[in-house]
Specification:
- The protein is α/β, with parallel strands linked by helices.
- Strands 4-3-2-1-5-6-7 form a seven-stranded mixed sheet.
- The radius of gyration is 16 Å and the shape is globular.
């Protein structure tokens, strides 16, 4: 629930949000997403958090990150680390939960409502801390995927849970044809980051 005129800050866990949208079979239109939250209240901040692979200057995520920077988003990127698991498989370690926690706690005295696009259960103590300051917290993720993309504890802790599938009609990009290269590369990077 949103109240007219309330000050809103939105924090997006980029890899988590991407994976949830992918599980629901849609692509995010970040312009429409920003417009939706501008419509819901006074948007103070729209913050996108992502971990990028180190030594990957030509990442396929760079165009998205650049576009977000030039179109009203505050972008916080950090370096993801690659490692091999005991079976020798390549894994990516990236976690933006602490970055989101610090940024949202710093901004909480200046807003009435914080919206977190993440299902990461590690954010539950953050939600509790923000709520103690009198700021309302909504979580956007999905329980309609298999498996669910949100921690049950996080969903129960929030003041409001917004099912991402219900936003799909408002924030999704129109379907388009992809070449194999266009379709696979960005998804692989974000999927690897979300899996860690």
């Amino acid at each position: 629930m949103f109240y007219k005129g309330e000050r809103i800050a939105v924090f997006i866990d980029g890899a988590n949000f991407f994976s949830a949208a992918k599980a629901l079979n849609f692509e995010i239109d970040y312009r429409l997403l920003r417009e939706e939250f501008m419509r819901r209240g006074k948007l103070v901040r729209m913050s996108y958090h992502i971990a990028l692979l180190e030594n990957d200057e030509f990442t396929t995520l760079r165009p998205l990150v650049d576009w977000l920077c030039y179109n009203g988003y505050s972008v916080a990127s950090k370096t993801a680390r690659e490692y091999a698991d005991p079976q020798g498989r390549r894994k990516v370690k990236s976690n933006v939960a602490i970055d989101i926690a610090v940024a949202s706690l710093e901004l909480s005295p200046h807003v009435d409502h914080i919206v977190l696009f993440s299902g990461d259960g590690d954010l539950r103590p953050l939600v509790e801390a923000i709520k103690r300051t009198g700021v309302r917290v909504s979580i956007v993720s999905t329980i309609r995927s298999q498996p669910s993309m949100i921690s049950d504890e996080l969903r129960r802790t929030a003041d409001n849970f917004i099912e991402l599938d219900q936003l799909k009609a408002v924030i999704s990009r129109p379907a388009r044809q992809h070449t194999a290269a266009e379709h696979d590369e960005p998804e692989n990077e974000l999927a690897e980051a979300a899996a860690s």
